[in-house]
Amino acid sequence: MSFPDDKATDKAVTVSSLENEKLGHPGSDGDSIIEGSEGVTQHEFDTLRHVADRLPVSAWLVVLVEFSERWTYYGTTNVFNNYIRAPLPRGSTTGAVLRSDRAFGIAGALNQGQEKSFAIRTFNTFWVYVTPFLGGILADTVWGRFKTIAIFSVVVLIGHVILVASSSPASLAHPQTALGLLIFSIVVIGIGAGSIKANVSPLIAEQYTGKLRKETLPSGEVVIKSPAVTYQSIYLWFYAAINFGSCGAISASFIARDQGYWAAYLVPTCLFIMVPIVLFFGRKNYVVTPPRGSILLETLRVIRLAMTPAWSFNPIKTINNIRAPDFWAPAKPSSYEVGRQPSIISWDDEFVGEVGRTLNACSVFLFFPFFWLCYSQIDGNLGTVAAGMTLNGTPNDLIQSVNPHLSSLGKLLTIEDRNLNPISIIIMIPIFDYVVYPTLRRYKINFSPIKRIYAGFLVAGLAMVYASVLQSFIDRSSPCHGTGVAPSACTKGTAPNEIPDPSPLNVWIVSGPYILVGIAEIFASITSIEYAYTKAPYRMKSVVQAFSQFQTAVSAALNFSLTAVNVEAKFKWLFASFGITAWVIGTIFFITFRELDRREAALNAIGSGGREGFVDEHPVGEEKI
Predict the structure, then answer these.
(1) Which residues lie across from 499 on neighbouring strands?
(2) Segment Disordered: which positions (predicted)?
(3) Which of 65, 452, 456, 578 is the most buried (most CB within 10 A)?
(4) How many CB atoms lie within 10 A of CB 5?
(5) pTM above 0.85?
(6) Cβ proximity of 391 and 507 under 8 Å
(7) Residue 238's closest CA among 217, 209, 207, 282?
(8) Is the model more confident about 466 or about 382?
(9) Which spans in 388-448 are helix H?
């Protein structure tokens, strides 16, 4: 649902001359200086090429923090499946496989079965994307982003210590005790990791404090150093750090198999110690924004005042009232006579406009659960798809979802395929940052955030359709076709640990969906982080970021509800339905927000003008510590 933009629908002034100068609306004076810039005229803004500015050292320090946090997250959760599902291997007290058994043996520990493993892992995903609200609220209202990250990094470290304890030989001798400690560690780590997650992405963008300005390149070309383009570049490299960190899953699988789970969990725990160290020694370099008070409570009060007269038992009438130009009037102090405004109002008209535009921005994220449903397939079902193809052996928990009856490494996904998604993203991000996006800007092609997100939905849908067609070919070419045995379970015999008899299709064919989903992430996921930062008022950036990330939790809940159809026999229909849904939802998304797309520049100015505490698009009180 799209809320009216209070600033754009104000009856007294539709668009002020100041906004025309600032945002480049038609009719503005081409020789006028854009407010807040360093001498850039509107004509220069419209005609010169826009490029990214240099990133400060403090931004790279935040990237390092994110890299360490993601390495520890993926380096532990990637081996959860076998740790929970499978029993201790023969002769093992740690989960490690004897050297003589590694041709077919699987690391394991708790012997809880596939169903319980799936439930715990799904809860972990859900939990870690719900808790960002806690960190977002505390950062925006009490501690500020830097202090919140520092405090919750200690919480994460405590959770990892508990996780290591759960996997010690003494603990594994009592599986129920170990399981209890594991769940406790998931809760603790989730609180810490989620709270960090809500704040680290806004913090990295805050490190850049540059303004719109001209600069002459060595070639003699005069360009515009653009904050908007710089933010786009910042989040591309921020996402690259996430994917570099996800490669920690590679070492974790081998360590668990060869040394046991206590060692596999100890390595990321030691690595995470880097986070508080980097925060401490870099504390004097960070730009930090102090907390701004009870912003969330004020926002809820604004919405309540506006919704009270608009509400109706007739949903169509309610929607029409919400879309009305005067929807926000009951919440604006200027709508009341002097001395008659409700005592609850402690804000000005500008803040009401901020709330309206922020809700519009947040509504963009409501479509993302359907995008993340497509993404979720690369961490589970696509691994099973590959298990029915011709491939080489590797530790099986390099994929997240494995048929519980499989035990032969020859049936499992290769390291190259499982990690192709993050590797492809790492390779493609410099290409997009230095080639694709600059080329589009050079030719004046406005590939705005809404268009990028739409492209992400289309590419994600294409990945699922590819997977559906591939599964159809695997089904037909499997030696067990027509026998009722799934391709991933097809063997040349019936005894346990029999030699696999896969489809002759080479496993590299499954690389397509991994690469396509990686491209989709660059378009949609990275842009959503950027959008959450640039469209939120300074006092609400962490909360808005948390709302954006919450959509992954919603997706996890949806995926959990589809457990019954997450079976290999239905994969081709499951993938096809996800692909078509992504295309349909993506198209509805673009149609719904095409007006926001046209007002991209105006939305970037949220919270930057007219309100006490803001000067030159940066909050008063912003400082280095």
Answers:
(1) none
(2) 1-35
(3) 456
(4) 21
(5) no
(6) yes
(7) 207
(8) 466
(9) 415-418, 420-431, 437-442
DSSP per position, 553-605: HHHHHHHHHTGGG-SGGGHHHHHHHHHHHHHHHHHHHHHHHHHHHHTHHHHTT
CB atoms within 10 A of CB 154: 12
CATH number for the domain running over 41-290: 1.20.1250.20
Amino acid sitting at position 503: S
The single-letter code of the amino acid at 510 is V
Angstrom distance (rounded) from CA 99 to CA 71: 27
Q: Where are the beta strands (DSSP E) in 2-96?
A: 49-51
Q: What is the b/e burial string over 453-465, where b = at least 16 CB atoms within 10 angstroms of the residue's CB?
A: bbbbbbbbbbbbb
The Cα–Cα gap between 42 and 19 comes to: 12
DSSP 35: T
Topology alike, domains 41-290 and 367-615: yes
pLDDT exceeding 90 applies to what percent of the chain? 22
CB 235 within 8 A of CB 57: no
**In whole angstroms, how far apart are CA 375 and each of 13, 577, 615?**
45, 14, 40
Q: What is the pLDDT of residue 583?
A: 97
Q: Show the CA angle centred on residue 265, arms to residues 260 and 266, nearest 5°.
A: 100
CB hemisphere CA count around 109 (13 angstroms): 33
- State the Cα–Cα distance between residues 496 and 232, nearest whole angstrom: 52
Instruction: Please give the pLDDT value at position 392.
Output: 52
Backbone angles phi, psi at 324, to 5 degrees: -65, 145
Say if residue 613 is exposed, middle or buried (CB neighbours under 10 Å; 0-12, 13-18, 19+): exposed
Residue matched to tokens 């003494």: 170
- Evaluate if residue 548 carries a pLDDT over 90: no
Q: Is the pLDDT of residue 18 over 60?
A: no
Which of 257-261, 352-356, 403-407 has the least mean pLDDT? 403-407
pLDDT at 472 over 70: yes
Q: How far is CA 38 from CA 19, 146, 208, 449, in A?
A: 17, 29, 15, 25
Residue 209 corresponds to which tokens in the numbers above?
């404090």
For residues 416-442, average pLDDT: 81
Question: Rounded CA gap, 7 and 604, in Å?
Answer: 13
pLDDT at position 62: 87
Domain ranges in the chain are 41-290, 367-615
pLDDT of residue 189: 95
Taking every pair of C-alpha atoms in the chain, what is the biggest distance, in angstroms?
Answer: 87
pLDDT band at 102 (very low <50, low <70, confident <90, very high): low
Model pLDDT, residue 105: 65
